[in-house]
Design brief:
Bound molecules: nickel (II) ion, manganese (II) ion
CATH superfamily: Ribonuclease Z/Hydroxyacylglutathione hydrolase-like
CATH class: Alpha Beta
Strand content: 25-35%
Oligomer: single chain
Largest sheet: 7 strands, mixed
Shape: globular
Number of strands: 14
Helix content: 10-25%
CATH architecture: 4-Layer Sandwich
Order of helices and strands: EEEEHHEHEEEEEHEHEHEE
Number of helices: 6
Strand order of the largest sheet: 6-5-4-3-2-1-14
Structural class: alpha/beta
Distance between the termini: 5 Å
Radius of gyration: 16 Å
């Protein structure tokens, strides 16, 4: 699985020749200024919740690519009004798509859309496929529910928020990595705004002491899992 980071909590994973794009927030993010939005590929766009730092570029990318949007029911309806093809989910989830399955899992957070309307339940995604499995936690606090994920699926990697203030910080992300039984973590949701700035070396050292690896990619950087 090829992984590409687009800054903040936006990234893409290629599975079976299809590109799954998560939480696009690129044009409003100065740290992602080098990313050309018109070159960002998507066959599927997955949205964890309605906050603007997760959906800002979703309507434009959905309109350009014709990607299918997989999102919490209320967020999916908001995308449909803007011309997107949608597949709404709620916690429980589990639908299958072309080469992968999506489970929408609990996140401890809030969710409203950029126009102020109700965004439904926020969540995270567990993606399972013949090429491997991964978990993206969305915006969330640490919760024991994460143990269920580790009990059910073996994960090749996980994408975890680490910036604190609005979500898990580095210490809680390490506890999450233990609960989900995953050693390969990609950090997201840090540095974009002053309250979520982190010390990279210190964060990576803490993961190392816990016997885990924290990948911190520059926007545009990629990895293979
Ligand atoms: Ni949020
Ligand atoms: Mn956020």
């Amino acid at each position: 699985m090829n992984f590409t980071y687009y800054g903040h909590a936006c990234f893409a994973v290629e599975i079976g020749g299809k590109t799954l794009l998560f939480d696009p927030f690129i044009t409003p993010n100065p740290l992602a200024a080098a990313i050309k939005i018109d070159t960002v590929k998507a066959d599927y766009i997955l949205l964890s919740h309605g906050h603007v730092d997760h959906v800002a570029d979703a309507p434009a990318i959905a309109q350009r690519t014709g990607a299918l949007v997989i999102a919490p029911f209320e967020v999916a309806r908001w995308m449909e009004k803007q011309g997107a093809k949608i597949h709404g989910v709620n916690p429980g989830g589990g639908p299958g798509f072309d080469g992968f399955k999506v489970k929408f899992v609990n996140a401890i957070h809030s969710s409203s859309l950029p126009d102020g309307t109700y965004g439904g339940c926020p969540g995270g995604f567990v993606i399972t496929s013949a090429e491997g499995n991964f978990y993206y936690c969305g915006d969330t606090a640490l919760t024991r529910d994460m143990e269920l994920i580790g009990e059910r699926d073996s994960l090749n990697f996980a994408v975890l928020c680490i910036g604190g203030n609005f979500t898990m910080d580095v210490d809680d992300a390490i506890r999450c990595a233990e609960m989900i039984r995953c050693d390969n973590i990609v950090g997201v949701h840090y540095d974009t705004f002053p309250p979520i700035k982190i010390n990279h070396e210190q964060a990576q050292e803490k993961f190392k002491i816990a016997g885990k690896r924290l990948h911190l990619l520059p926007p545009g950087g990629s990895l293979k899992f």
